[in-house]
Amino acid sequence: MPAATDETLAPMVAWAQQRLDEPITVADLARRAGTSTGNLHRRFRAELGTTPLAWLTVERVTLACRLIEQGTPGLESVARRSGLGTGANMRALFQRHLGVSPAEYRRRFADTRRAATMSPTDANTQRKANTPRKANTPRKANN
After folding, report:
1. Element of type H or E holding 52
2. Model confidence over 8-65: pLDDT tens digits?
3. Are 26 and 36 contacting, i.e. CB atoms less than 8 angstroms apart?
4. DSSP characters over 93-119
5. Does residue 116 carry a pLDDT above 90?
6. In angstroms, what is the C-alpha Rg of the chain?
7. Distance (Å, rounded) from C-alpha 29 to C-alpha 4?
8. Per-residue pLDDT tens for 51-80?
9. Alpha carbon separation from 19 to 14, 23, 49, 124 (Å, rounded)
10. 102-109 and 52-69 helices, crossing angle to 10°
11. Is 11 helix (H, G, I), strand (E, B) or coil?
């Protein structure tokens, strides 16, 4: 196993971000970080508050969002270029992480200035804020 040259995950993160369109496994990330997969999981939790696979998925969804915002044609092409594989997989991940389909995301954000700064977390927050409350939800009383 190669020796780690940095105590943080930053070099491995930068390496992975440059290769999101390639197949990357947790074992690949661990090798790049110079550690075991179990230790990588612990380090990810400690430094980034998530698992390696969850981080990789969010990074790929974020890249797909950027590609859509930039007008990259064809959702299958966006899925391949972002490492999400297929349009079907990208649709499922967009629904899970953003609450919208890639096509809906394109309609909402492809031509707006604001889209360039919106992360999946921001888009999900906006979606929740714009979701109407149920009619039977009681309002909070002002005292």
Report:
1. helix 52-69
2. 899 999 999 999 999 999 999 999 999 999 999 999 999 999 999 999 999 999 999 9
3. no
4. HHHHHHSS-HHHHHHHHTT-SGGGG--
5. no
6. 18
7. 12
8. 999 999 999 999 999 999 999 999 999 999
9. 9, 8, 22, 25
10. 50
11. helix
Structure tokens at 61: 């969804």
What's the CA gap between 75 and 12, in Å, rounded? 28
Cα separation, 50 vs 53, in Å, equals: 8
> Which contiguous run of DSSP H or E holds residue 45?
helix 37-48
Q: What angle do CA 32, 6, 29 make, to 5 degrees?
A: 20
pLDDT score recorded for residue 124: 55
Provide the Cα torsion 35, 38, 40, 42; round to 10°. Answer: -130
- Six token digits for residue 136: 């039977």
- 3 state DSSP class of 16: helix
Instruction: Tell me what the mean pLDDT of segment 102-129 comes to.
Output: 66
